[in-house]
């Protein structure tokens, strides 16, 4: 596995070209998007996509997001492009919004977990866009980490998680958004929010009108309508406990230490807590999201066995962060 450092704002075409060629040839390339690092493969080549599932240890019922360089690339992958999709693309693309639409028959079942819809988006990271443009193929790319673990926001996270399972890693520095994209289904007469993210339901509704709300729960082992819908996901090696009241945060940390555990605390407001390692994140959603996964990785790296996390709001711009923490704590 090779790691190639690229300028995150002005990627050198000569550095991008070998990665693009690898994708066309069926290889696996990890690359930065604005959300997290993705593990990319040629989306229309079944054998290449199967390598993603093998590298991640990802179950086949979990569909993948396909990344493209422009709207025309997205439209080639779907059998219908409703007017609402066009309006959303004009406002939010390139960016951290994924649209789930009826798929074109050219998209293999392995990408969609056999469902009749495909998830597509245009990332805004300059390195991702340069790679997609040079590759000239759609790229299926879930987060570049082992299944259910914390997503990578740096190339180092990718290397430590996947190692030689990846052919090449493009190192474009830390990601700017820090959590995965919002996923919205437009496969029927209503719009359904499948996964919250930094693009909020309120922002989407301002463009296309009211959303249906959360997706229905599906049985274990059944195909998911979207990536990131597994019950336990985005989780560090350490156990995660959520608490809101300062006294409860302090109690959980104290009990963990009394049991001999290395305890970390992830806080967004001043809370007196006797933890082994304390990390303070911004008390606003964008800044918190950008640093969340890196902080969880760091607490894992120093050997924390328990991480006590101060709860965040569940609505509005906080919904994506709230979702990730709730899944990590299950």
Outline the structure in words.
The strands form two sheets. Strands 1-8-2-3-7-4-6-5-9-10 form a ten-stranded mixed β-sheet, sandwiched between helices. Strands 11-14-12-13 form a four-stranded parallel β-sheet, with helices on both faces. It is built from eleven helices and 14 strands. 49% of the residues are buried. The protein is of the alpha/beta class and 330 residues long. Helix 1 packs across helix 6. It has helices spanning 13-24, 46-56, 71-75, 83-92, 109-112, 126-135, 155-162, 201-208, 246-258, 285-301, 319-328; strands at residues 2-5, 29-32, 37-42, 65-67, 97-102, 117-121, 139-140, 168-171, 182-185, 192-195, 239-243, 263-267, 277-280, 306-310. Strand 2 and strand 3 form a beta hairpin.
Task: Identify the notable features of this structure and list them briefly.
4-stranded parallel beta sheet, alpha/beta, 330 residues, 10-stranded mixed beta sheet, 11 helices, single chain
